[in-house]
Amino acid sequence: MSNQTHSFKPTLSLVDATMIVAGSMIGSGIFIVSAEVARSMGSSGWMMAMWVLAGVVTLIAALSYGELSGMFPKAGGQYVYLREAYNPFIAFLFGWTQFGVIQTGTIAAVAMAFAKYLGYLAPGLGETNVLLKIPLGSWAFSVNMAQIIAILSIVLLTWINTKGVKNGKIIQTVFTFTKLFSLFGLIVFGLMIGAKAEIWNANWENAWQTANLQMVDGQLVTTALGGMAFLGAIAVSMKGTLFSSDAWNNVTFIAGEIKSPEKNIGRALFLGTFIVTIIYVSANLMYLAVLPFNEIAFAPQERVGVAAAERIFGPGVGAMAIAVMIIISTFGCNNGLILSGARIYYTMAKDGLFFRKAGELNRYDVPGTGLWIQCLWASLLCLSGKYGDLLTMVIFGVLLFYVITIIGIFVLRRTRPEIPRSHKAFGYPVLPALYVLVALSLAVLLLIYEPEYAVPGLGIILLGIPLYYAARKEMK
Question: Which residue, 70, 226, 278, 414, could crosslink 423 as a Cys pair with Cβ 3.0–4.6 Å?
């Protein structure tokens, strides 16, 4: 059908939008990332500081985006902000990186986390069940059952979301409320049942000493941190905490389907990020009350959540409870990512910078073709086995685009002062400028201390340059 007879329907309320923000943010990171942070920083005070800093930085960014969402309440969100503040070229680089790696790579990684923990409950559905293995010299291409389950979950959620935004809304709201209450329950039970005063006191004895912790031949090796090594540890830690808090911007992509988007997107950004920040900080305080610090740092397979739950509920029940929580969390998270991502490609296609069919709405008033294109690429990333590497590579790029977008607020204040702003960036110009400074510093530190990931991440962005000009040439 012609797109002339179809348009986005504003059916999502403030609660729905808030659930998309919170649901897209909470995946499996809160159950895992604290181990790396503990090893990198070496003390409970600095571990908590990294989570608090990530929450504050995320809140500043979300509150800053509220101004942009009020100015441009259109499908595509951040892509539109970049286009209006700068030009289509910068917007395309963002859209390309989102499609090529960030959105689809995150979908693949979250789907694999879902499948791995489903495999924990039913081992036959896990990674150990290899279905196909093809030797290719020193390397072998293989497909396991977890990859198939991950792909099936992506296909299922994509199909549901092609049937209308209301279907995706129901899944998002139900699963997000479920994981918020289950996480809250874990924290409360941990503090009430599992907390031990001697563990808590021991963890806070040397709360502000910094050290790198390593386990070598079963022995703990502690290396004091100072100067640039300390800054490098912060960069490594913030990489994990910020990504556990990422994807909050996804709600801006679906502005065309939110009621009163000029007001409700900004409100949802604040409420969603604030709720998640409180839960993340509380969860880490619970870990410190339940587990000795070294057991957080060296939790088996970095599963801090599992280690804490086993201490609270006992080995069998605890591990089972966390597995169920992560299954619920990742499924709901992916629904939000899948629902929102296709709206970027829709707007890009309208600008002539993506597959033309992705710019059409189906009979349910959603970009069905864009959803299936996203599904196909995310599924291929599941099969590649490199989704985790891809995600690590784009950390630099994600920070860079957040910085460029927030600088866009300063640009638009000067170039487009006449546009109504239902929200103003909180603490402007100090807090947005502070975010830019912190995020740029982290990006530079990643280039210095993790160039094996940051440099290829920059390369992925730069690959968009010839693609942009190829797309422009195709338009002529």
Answer: 70
